[in-house]
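Backbone shapes recur. Consider a single case.
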Amino acid sequence: MRSNIVAGIILGVLAVSCAEQESNPFFSDFNTPFGVPPFDLIKADHYLPGFAEGIEEQNEEVAAIASNPETPSFENTIEALETSGALLRKVRRVFFNMTSANTNDALQGIAKEVAPMLSKHGDDILLNPVLFSRVEAVYQQKDRLDLGPEQRTLLLETYKDFVRGGARLDEQGKAELRRINEELSVLKVQFSENVLQENNAFELVIEDEEDLAGLPGAVITAAAETAEERGHKGIWVFTLHKPSMIPFLQFSDRRELREEIFTAYVNRGSNGNAFDNNVAAARSAVLRAERAKLLGHETFADYVLEKNMARTPQAVYALLDQLWKPSLEMAKKEAEVLQAMALDGGSDSALKPWDWWYYAEKERKKKYDLDEEALRPYFKIENVRDGAFAVANQLYGITFEERTDLPKYHEDVVTFEVKEADGSHIGVLYLDYFPRAGKRGGAWMDAFRKQSGSGGERVAPVICNDCNLSKPTGDRPSLLGLEEVRTLFHEFGHALHGLLSDCEYESLAGTDVPRDFVELPSQIMENWATHPEVLKTYARHYETGEVIPQELIDKIEASGKFNQGFAMVEYLAASYLDMDWHTLTGNSEPNAEAFAKESMQRIGLIPEIVERYRSPYFSHIFSGGYASGYYSYIWAEVLDADAFQAFKETSLFDRETASSFRENILARGGSEDPAILYERFRGAEPQIDALLERKV
């Protein structure tokens, strides 16, 4: 049935007039500076024809590879597969970036329609027995072929993709795999849409000015502007977007209102309405378990981790267990302090999760005389961004030139051309920093076009950073909190991974690396974000231009380990939940709420803290690429702490160390085993000592 639908779409595309074909921007080279997407010309109704034509075009290319009468070789089989599907990649990169950053009902409808099409198309390639026989024939010659490291990796990864994609299954197994993949593709889209709908649906409406007690003036102004944007006047509206919610939890004296917004946040996707994700989460986990078993793995985590640095679920659990006990003990001590503060403040009840941010902020003020709002004036977003640019310039010699002539998909977006020290072009960077109804939550990096060097000619990357940071309010520019500063630097680190990639093959370039290695380039950048030497270069008062006082820098440093028990416990709890979902072995769907409750009881999560992501809105694992991989942030933090130690041993901007990091980590993408790349940079395996020193 599905193949008939796809065939119908393709026939419809072929039937359109030449004029309509020519009007679709995807069917010709992008006539823009650097070949960036012409967002001003791309319309919603261009995507489906683009997908259909892209699928048809790649089908023809794959058929030609499979039927090639010549003896299978690296060039006519592996490289030919790698370069096939150019149109399809072009369409899907623009489309899925838009469904993440600037979606609407039309795009969401297309996403639901195209998900099973793409699932079927991927299966058609990986389950093609004639094609696999050619890939396998080349693989069997791997030790006799004269291949460079990147070519060898491409061959190995291509072969593994086919095997992991079901190429060795019998016909019944292949049919079952197709069914599972199609259902998962639809669940993924629906899960993401439900979270977005739940984010946008909630409003904490405040009509009585007394209910604003404790909130800073800038937070109140932002809430008034949000109310006006939503058609309300004379009131204040707070939303589940973190720049709105977190300051409310930190400063609002109205406990019942803190409870209301916090409860709405943690109950997203679990309200028993049309957007409930509990069943989708459980169903996804069971389907993944079935797929893993079908492919010869005990659990889905075993299937995923086979390609990661961790290799096994046991290794992941061992790392989590090593960190859990000391982190939990630290969090319990923090909870005791906050409970005592609450009692001193007149509260006669137990500390609750919606109280933690509020009393932690008071404790930080009391212990370190550090007020989050006192820092914000020094973190104007443009200054923070330029600070990140300056760090990259000092490390790698690269520069960033704003371009106002590039098409943009939203007025908030700012674009830059990235250049080498000699002025030669590296790539283009899109920065999209503010929340809106059409953007999913969180922060991420992606590519509109990845770097490659196919045919000896470098294809320059077009990279984007998307965040949900504090917006400008009234006559104040966007002023960031300390965590938002770290987020900006973090995502910029991912962007550098994409921009400074120097690989021949697109599928191995940039951030296409094992999941527990991909966070190294992002997390190491956070070390520069709040380093005293760096802060003095970009943290300037937005009104006076005054450099951040040494007194404030000292307070930031002194409070560096403050609230670390809470941060580690909520993160590790979510990591355990991810692993528990993906080490399921049965085929009956558990009750998602009961499953998560049991998971948290097993590790002893204290009631004052909620896991960072509950199952119904755990987009990282149910609609993103982090299934069995949320642990990767702490795994990579071992790497980043150890890697930054190399700069501590030399100097903060040591060019030789930076050059080695660029050459061996950023430039190499997934072209070699990450353990080899890391040892090549560091000269030894990573040690956990630097991380423990940072955390404890």
User: Anything to note?
Assistant: The radius of gyration is 25 Å.
